[in-house]
Amino acid sequence: MGMIQLEDMEFYAFHGHFKEEQIVGNRFLVNLTIHTAMKKPAQSDNLKDALNYQTAYEIVKKEMEEKSHLLEHIAGRILDMLYHHFDTIEKATIKVSKMNPPTGGKMKCVSVTLEK
Fold it and tell me: Could you tell me which of 1, 34, 95, 98 has the fewest CB atoms within 10 Å of its CB?
């Protein structure tokens, strides 16, 4: 087993509980770790034997374009779509961070991490 990490994927999206967040938008960072079998691609050097991280990125990007009220919902949708698309995932962890959340105070980000 090995691990693929897609780190600090940045998106501008329109997620949030407040109506203004869904109009103005915000910056989000997504970190994804996928545990998968890597023995075959390590030997074959062939992309068809590997979990294609470009495809994983496209799944994340597509789900980030769909509005949600909660970070938990975004993270859950992404994990569900990854598992639907790839049958070699043994475990996946995703962290979705909203930069400068509207909390009434100064804060770098708020994050939600889910594992499946």
Answer: 1
